[in-house]
Amino acid sequence: MHGELNLLHPIAPQQSDTLVLDALTRYVAQSGTRVGEKLPPERVLAEGLAVSRNTVREALKRWEALGIIMRKKGSGTFLQSEVTANDSFLSLRFKNDSATMLHALEVRRIIECEASALAAVRATESDLLFIEQKLDVMEKVHLSVGSAGAEDWQFHAAIYTAAHNPLLLQMVGGIYDLLHAFFESPPEQALFSDSFPLHRTLFEAIARREPETARRLSNDILNITERDMKEVINAAR
């Protein structure tokens, strides 16, 4: 039933589980696997993608949480939700859990705008140097490959740290997993490019000790994030 395993192609071993799931999405769509049918064993998938079985297992846990697959002990993994050639982990996430994703963004907005304002008041000189360092890396990666999700997260985390309230970073870290797909979107799914230049403007406001401006710019960045999220949601329907 799964003679199409040559549809699986090795991916770089350091890639995130989001990219593993995108590769699996392409395989499921191209192999014609239908809802209710069984997927190949983790070992076979891992070999086809040239990643560890643990990497595949962790990636499949995300699909299971979204109801895309069901794993039956002793029987295997079965497809529970339709997957098409146009899907990605991002679109599948929105198909199955768009309300939660938007709620997570709302929580992030509430926390992040205030964290940016606090950073403008409380950041030390070493904090500012660290934020700028993360910003420089984010800009370099973005201009090089067209997206910089992981680096973007590091930049925002540096601002949270500069707010000098450790609970803020812990709180947003609690919803990071819900926004995981956005931060790790591959270049062909690059999102939020419109907000890219605003990140340096935000840093400059923090460095000038302008909390109200920092709060407003954080809100502007998240307005763009929300707009792009809704576009993906509508496209996934």
Account of the 3D structure:
This protein is mostly helical and 237 residues long. It contains ten helices and two strands; from the N terminus they run H-H-H-E-E-H-H-H-H-H-H-H. It has helices spanning 17-31, 42-49, 53-65, 89-122, 125-145, 149-162, 166-176, 180-183, 196-207, 211-236; strands spanning 69-72, 76-79. A two-stranded antiparallel sheet has the order 1-2. A hairpin with a 3-residue loop joins strand 1 (69-72) and strand 2 (76-79). Helix 4 packs parallel to helix 6 and helix 9 runs antiparallel to helix 10 (211-236). The radius of gyration is 20 Å and the shape is elongated. The protein starts with 16 loop residues before the first helix and ends with a helix. 36% of the residues are buried. The model has no long low-confidence stretch (mean pLDDT 84).
**Could you tell me the radius of gyration in angstroms?**
20 Å
Strand content: under 5%
Model regions low in confidence, pLDDT < 50 over at least 5 residues: none
Helix content: 55-70%
**Average pLDDT, to the nearest integer?**
84
Protein structure class: mainly alpha
Secondary structure tally, helices: 10
Please write the string of helix (H) and strand (E) elements.
Answer: HHHEEHHHHHHH
Instruction: Count every beta strand, where a strand is a DSSP E run of 2 or more residues.
Output: 2
Tell me the overall shape.
elongated
Distance between the ends: 29 Å
Sheet of most strands: 2 strands, antiparallel
Strand order of the largest sheet: 1-2
